[in-house]
Amino acid sequence: MDDCLFCKIINKTIPAEIIYENDRVLAFNDINPQAPTHILIIPKVHIPTLNDLERDHRNLIGELVLVASDLAKELDIADDGYRTNFNCNDSGGQTVYHIHLHLLGGREFGWPPG
Ligand code: AMP
Ligand code: ZN
Asked: Is residue 78 part of a domain?
């Protein structure tokens, strides 16, 4: 999608620190990290919010979670623990309307979230 920031990162018209990439997903460092490790894992197809998911996306969404799990192990934050989350729409804190799984680690996280 032409005016989507994350589609531009996928198309390499905007730079990002890419951590992992395959034909279906891309993982890159968050530009404003909220933890020592803060990676965004996104599908390469443009899906604006979790509300737009369809049943055919089940493997793709599963792959985002599996990439988060793999990266957590590779980056050595898996044993201590980490936080993953999707924000959805305004009340959920979403600011970029191309779904993304946040992977945060390297510090303690509180619950409930703010
Ligand atoms: P959310 O608020 O869940 O929509 O998260 C959007 C995230 O994208 C925020 O954590 C931003 O810091 C991050 N972000 C915005 N622009 C960029 C960019 N150009 N490269 C990497 N991360 C970005
Ligand atoms: Zn997009």
From this structure: yes
Annotation says 98 is catalytic: no
Q: How far is CA 2 from CA 7, 11, 13, 76, 85, in A?
A: 7, 10, 11, 36, 26
Low-confidence ranges of the chain (pLDDT < 70): none
Question: Residue 114's pLDDT is what?
Answer: 83
Answer yes or no: is 114 within a domain. no
User: The domain spanning residue 68 has which CATH number?
Assistant: 3.30.428.10
Say if 112 falls within a structural domain. no
Q: pTM for this one? A: 0.98
Record the tokens describing residue 74, joined without a space.
């590779």
Domain count, the chain: 1
Ligand 1 residue neighbourhood (C-beta within 6 Å): 5, 14, 16, 30-32, 40, 87, 93-96
